[in-house]
Structures are given as C-alpha cells and as structure tokens.
Amino acid sequence: MQIKTMVSSEILSGYDVVSTLYPHIPSMSHWRSWEYAAYQHHQLDGRILDLGCGDGRYFRLIWPQATDVVGVDNNPGIVELGRKSGVYRNVHTVLAHNVPEPDASFDHVFANCSLEHMDRLNAVLAEIHRCLKPGGTLLCSVVTDRFIQWSLLPKLVSMAGFDDAGITLQKDFLDYHHLANPLSVEEWEKKFNRAGLLAEEHYPILPKHNSGIFLLMDSLWHVKQAGGGELGDVIFSFLSDSANFPGAFRKIFAGLLEMETDWQDCSGAVFLIRKPRW
C-alpha cells in the first residue's frame, strides 16, 4: 500500500470549498478540508454507491459531475433529505450490510467517515465486495485509534482534578460518535484484506497538532448543557455573529499546518481500496 502525503496549500484550498457548507462549525470544516483535499486526487465515475450518504450536500460538493449515484443511510429523516437533494437516483433506508442492489453492480463505493460507526464492519465490507464490479474501488475516510488517544478535553479536565467529569466527557464523546471501529491503519488494512479487498493508497489526515485542536473543538461542541442541548448551540450562535469568522479561522488553520512535523501519524485516514479483477 502506498502512503501519500499532501501539502498545506491543497488542504487550505479544501477549506475554501468546504467552509461554504460549514462556515461557523470549525471542527466540521477543519476535518472535512483534509478529506476533500485527499479526495481531489481521485475520480469517481460510472455507477456509485454512497454508503452512509447523509443529506448529500458534501457528496455533491466533492463529486459535482456524478449523476448515477445510489445512497444508503439508516436514518429515515436523513434519507428524506438525501432524496430531496437531487444528488441520488435512489436512497435506501437500510443498514450498510444489507444493500438491496444486485451483485457487481457498482463501479465505485464511497464511504465518508461512516465505516468507523458500523457495528457489523466485517459484514459491511463483505457487502461492499459483493456490490463492487471486479476492478471497482472503495474510496473512504475513517478515523484511527489516535482519535481516542489524542482526545484533549477529558484529559485536561482530569488533570484539573475532576476525574469523574473527565471520564463522563470521554464516554459522552465516544457515545455521540458511536466509534465502533477506532482502528489503527494496520488494522484497517487487515480488515479490508480479509474481505477480499486490496488497499492501494492511504492518505494520512490530521496529524497530531491538527488532531488535538480538532478534537478539543469537537469535544467542546458536543458537551451537554444542563438545560438540554449542546454547548455547540451556544458556540454556533456566537460564531455566526461574525461574517469574518471563516476567513479568520483559515489563518488559524494555516498556523496549525505550519506546526506539523510528522504528517503520517494521524487521527484519520483516506483509503483507496480495490476489488481484484479475478
């Protein structure tokens, strides 16, 4: 498997595009900027399966030329948004290990930050293998084990002497994201191989300093308020008051990129996986 790297200008260009979707949600625009930059090294054409499709907005941002796309999501409300988006020919409300499509009927499967949340990962990967044509590809982003290891907020709270609160924050954070598969890069590759899929390329995304700030922002965003809702509701309202925020945060983002010295040890990964032709 080839390990690929990107340069800062690619990632900041990704931010310029992605921040139009999430102008006042810095953790979202931060993470997805890295994904977007990695995806730009690939081309998806033909018939595409979007596994964990959501509302379709991010897919359309990345692949505006794609016209023959089928979505899969298990959330009925999200599926309805996906159907209304105009991105998909059809959207199935099913779990990802039970896709109601014929064998070998897709040229590509796309799974953006969805595989790590799936309880039956082996069955999902087997289903991807079944759905792909020989020679077809799976392009996906996932989190790695560093996503948990580098989580800052619970550690900082515990260091301040509030161990129980730190434990609760970490549990709530993991429950929110439902991280069923926070695997190392090596473990992800083994999972793909066992399903009969070959990992060809790996783009590490979000090295240590970017990961630390992303995880701190995301953890704070999802802290539960005593009266209901999340702190993110308050933060979003605060940031939305400034039309200058997306541009200002871009400068912070650029500074974080300058801090990185090891671009291969990361909390996320983008993989290009292929189903063999034979």
Report on the structure:
The chain has 278 residues and is of the alpha/beta class. The protein has twelve helices and eight strands. The protein has helices at residues 8-18, 26-39, 57-62, 76-84, 121-131, 146-149, 152-159, 163-177, 185-194, 208-221, 231-240, 245-259; strands at residues 2-3, 48-51, 69-73, 90-93, 106-112, 132-143, 198-207, 266-274. Helix 2 (26-39) packs across helix 10 (208-221). 40% of the residues are buried.
Summarize the structure.
This is Methyltransferase type 11 domain-containing protein. Residues 49-140 form the Methyltransferase type domain. The protein contains twelve helices and eight strands.
CATH homology superfamily: Vaccinia Virus protein VP39
CATH domain fold name: Rossmann fold
Q: Total number of β-strand segments? A: 8
CATH architectural name: 3-Layer(aba) Sandwich
Class from secondary-structure proportions = alpha/beta
Write out the strand line-up for the largest beta sheet, numbering strands in chain order: 1-7-8-6-5-2-3-4
- What Rg is obtained from the alpha carbons, in whole angstroms? 19 Å
Return the domain count.
1
**Major β-sheet profile:** 8 strands, mixed
Q: Spans with pLDDT under 50 lasting ≥5 residues?
A: none
Number of helix segments? 12
Percent in strands: 15-25%
How much helix, percentage-wise, in residues?
A: 40-55%
Average pLDDT for all residues: 95
H/E series: EHHEHEHEEHEHHHHEHHHE
What is the CA-CA span between the terminal residues?
19 Å
